[in-house]
Amino acid sequence: MQKGDFLKIEYLGRIAATGEVFDLTDEALARKEGIHNPKQRYGPVLVIIGSGMTVPGVEKQLLQMKPGDEREFDVSQEEGFGRREPRLIKIVSYRKFIGQKINPVPGIFVNIDGRNARIQSVSGGRVRVDFNSPLAGKELRYKVRIVKCLTGAQESVQAMLEHYGIKASALLKEGGLTIKTEQKLPDQVRNLLSREITRWIKEVKKISYVNPSAEQKGDKNMASGKPDVKGNAAQSPKDGSGKEAKPI
């Protein structure tokens, strides 16, 4: 494998010291382990080599594998979710949680200003929160299998749409990609898609977004191949360090 390859993989991730499963793609195994989540999508997931969709230790192994290969290996803290950093433990005013209609209870996970955190304690009007990833400071053990390598631009586009949970059809013709959605996508989502699709799929030069309701109003939303993306709107959730959260 090499940078830019589109892969569909299956994986199982455990904490090496305890064997506790923290993530997996096999729904039957999730039920067996007692961690099934009806809201989670199971099955092979998309990974683009070099995109940061996986932790460095997993990507290093994927680069040495080929479709059909399966490996089990350990990933260190440094090549996983990093070491725990004391500076990411903060004191936040209780009023901030009330303003966001959140009841701060020790042990729960919350999102504060776009950053995921775990509440450690509540004392008076002060809440102690930990912005470290729950997997920071832990050695991990993975079992990974490459199901397939996507080779066509059309197939790769469809895989990206599915990855972002967008129900749409896509047609690529002479460098122009038309994405037809059931509902009009927010500008932030269109910007994210345009940026990522044109970054990783070089055959795509420009993108058009259309949907039935917009067509009836004569509104056809166009996005250039390199849209102006401001701030971090519509990006994947980030941990306290500001790094993009990894699916594996």
Q: What does this 3D model show about the protein?
A:
The protein is of the alpha+beta class. The protein has 3 domains: 98 residues, Chitinase A, domain 3; 45 residues, Thrombin, subunit H; 82 residues, Alpha-Beta Plaits (2-Layer Sandwich), CATH 3.30.70. Helix content is 20%, strand content 31%. It has 6 helices and 13 strands. The longest helix is centred in the C-terminal third of the chain and has 14 residues. 24% of the residues are buried. About 11% of the residues have low confidence.
Helix content: 10-25%
Q: Kindly state the number of beta strands.
A: 13
User: Which residues form runs of ≥5 with pLDDT under 50?
Assistant: 219-245
State the distance separating the first and last CA atoms.
Answer: 18 Å
Radius of gyration: 20 Å
CATH architecture of the largest domain: Roll
